[in-house]
Design brief:
84 residues; mainly alpha
């Protein structure tokens, strides 16, 4: 059930302007569970995976709600008169 929520939140974060950065929480969560789960053993992987899913869902919800802040002044729009 959390996977469906995470996929939907990733889609919403992508639409809010995060683009490829919206995939970072999912990839970080998967890598964390794989490496920490391998070190903890097969008996302890379920609580680690659940806690990681909750954290990933919260991060994605924040990203989907806030949207990415755009830069107000890019380097291309700086006039040459400011540099002189």
């Amino acid at each position: 059930m959390l996977l469906i929520l995470e996929i939907w939140l990733t889609k919403r974060a992508w639409q809010k302007g995060w683009n490829g950065y919206a995939l970072v929480p999912l990839l970080a969560g998967i890598l964390f569970v794989v490496f920490v789960g391998a070190a903890a053993g097969p008996d302890n992987i379920a609580p680690i995976a659940f806690a990681t899913d909750v954290v990933v869902s919260i991060v994605l919800a924040i990203m989907a709600r806030r949207g990415r802040e755009s830069v107000s002044e890019s380097a291309d729009s700086v006039s040459l008169s400011k540099a002189a």
